[in-house]
Amino acid sequence: MTDLQSARQEQLEHWAQTRLAALCSHQATETLALTPLAGDAGFRRYYRLNTEPSLLAVDAPPPRENAGRFAELSQHLLNHHIAVPKVASVDPDNGFLLLEDLGDRLLYHALRQQPDSATALYGEALMQLLALQQTPRGELFPPFDQAFLRRELTIFKEWFLTEMLGLDLSEEEAASLTSLFERLEASALEQPQVAMHRDYHSRNLLIRPDGCMSIVDFQDAVWGPITYDLVSLLRDCYIRWPASQIQQWALGYGNMACGIGLLQDVTEEQFLQWFDWMGLQRHLKVLGIFSRLSLRDGKDQYLEHLPLVIRYILEVSSQYPELAEFRYWFEHTVMPAVQEKPWYQDYRQAGEIAA
At what angle do helices 268-295 and 146-155 cross, to 10 degrees? Predict the structure, then answer.
């Protein structure tokens, strides 16, 4: 732990102690203790407090994190019956939060331990997503517009192609990639736009002690395409399911969305193309994000998931004639550089759950 981190933890502990004195419903069982929890891809640090009932103390350092927006979003979602942690107290200036402690049993762990329960578990996750997507926009959800989409895709170019692989694109290659980006952006923007978590997957869904599921890490929520969170969940970067099962779940969700009016006048073929192309946009971005987490932030553990992300990209791009040029380029230019990396493993088996 650096001196800065140690100082932040001391400040957080002092703030938590002060706030607990004002919260009659939460008391330390003894001298207040902060137990660090495993971190995530962001800059937040989590600590479990020895309080009754249990709370989490969160260090969300500004300006990289926005504790105030998190608290506002939490209240907005709770007001519309979305299962998220309650914020007991927030100091937006210093970036400190006290959160309801929902435990640490991730959907990811449940799926790994009980793969036969996947359909039931995903059923609950899809119902939570359906509720989220019916949330009114208010003023808290910025648009996931063309400029936003392009910024995400640029992360793929800068951090995966250039920084991770050392590739220098020719003018022709750059133009072809820009053409692909424009196709993916157009597909995203023609979809119905709804409340979008933006990182809705098995490591951001918690199964509470009562068996119900809650959503966490929603601070980057935007207003965007209806298939984005769906494909984030079903084509998860940390775990993979058979393509036929994914399609069945996706179409089932589409039918539910049609039934409540979120979708109208869309064929199964069109919905699946939205789903596939949205996933391609997300997974290109993720190649860049995971590379940046390693190269810039020292979080090398994300590199082990790159082969699965590559698998999704190659599988989807093989299904559409419009993407054939991109797939050929990815296979013949990108993959030789990928296969030289120490983190590479055969993407064709990536993400499989061992029998």
Answer: 50
